[in-house]
Design goal:
The protein is α+β, with helices and mostly antiparallel strands and 213 residues long. Helices cover 58% and strands 7% of the residues. The chain is globular, with a radius of gyration of 17 Å. Bound molecules: glutathione.
Length: 213
């Protein structure tokens, strides 16, 4: 198998890389690294990803980590539908949105809201209301910014066709809307809601949707 992705199916970042592989039609093997059980910190995994995070990617002896680098490589190294706009400004928007997701959306939507509202109770704990209260406005701001960066009338985040930006955001949003405040925040943003109505149903999303619980 020439393409190997190391990471658990429940990881949003691993899912973004899988979405790129699915959208391009590239066969791959997903090798489980259960970060919730500490497997990310094994010497073996840290040799692939120095911080012990997922995903890590291999293709015919070429090793790569950092999800946006991985998804760009997948788009550029394999045949299939283009996942980056040809237009330089739209491509810059795509990179900008991925940066916003990494720096602002993921830390608040997943690291604070989803973690406290969904994972902590699933593990038998009590959500930390202070973390939720801090994370929600940060998540709202990230959503507002991403919606504002979508061009008027576009079906996808950076044009008519799905790009790496859509694949970066979709796994984060899928978890965020499993929470009640997440659903309410999305509902207040009609253009992002309409986008999610399409994106959440794509075959690549359905195929990679993790079973939680
Ligand atoms: N900058 C990394 C971030 C990856 C990341 O944060 N992955 C999460 C899972 S979705 C992770 O590995 N968390 C475990 C940890 O932080 O130890 C990338 O783009 O790949």
């Amino acid at each position: 198998m020439p393409v190997v992705l190391h990471g658990p199916a429940y990881s949003t970042y691993a899912r973004s890389a899988r979405l790129a592989l699915e959208e391009k039609g590239v066969p791959y093997e997903l090798r489980e690294v259960d970060i919730l059980k500490g497997a990310g910190q094994s010497p073996e995994h840290r040799a692939r990803q120095p911080w012990g995070k997922v995903p890590a990617f291999e293709h015919d002896g070429f090793n790569l980590f950092e999800t946006f680098a991985i998804t760009r490589y997948i788009d550029e190294a394999f045949p299939g539908p283009r996942l980056q706009p040809e237009d330089a400004r739209r491509r810059a928007r795509m990179t900008q949105i991925c940066g916003v997701i990494d720096s602002y959306a993921y830390p608040s939507m997943i690291g604070k809201v989803f973690w406290q509202a969904a994972i902590v109770p699933m593990q038998g704990g009590t959500p930390d209301q202070a973390v939720l209260a801090e994370g929600l406005p940060q998540a709202e701001q990230a959503l507002t910014v991403v919606e504002g960066l979508m061009a008027e009338g576009d079906a996808a985040l950076c044009g008519g066709a799905v790009s790496l930006a859509d694949l970066h955001l979709a796994p984060v949003l899928d978890y965020f809307v499993m929470t009640e405040p997440g659903r309410a925040a999305l509902a207040r943003r009609p253009r992002l809601s309409a986008w999610w109505g399409r994106m959440g149903q794509r075959p690549s999303m359905v195929k990679t949707r993790p079973a939680l619980g």
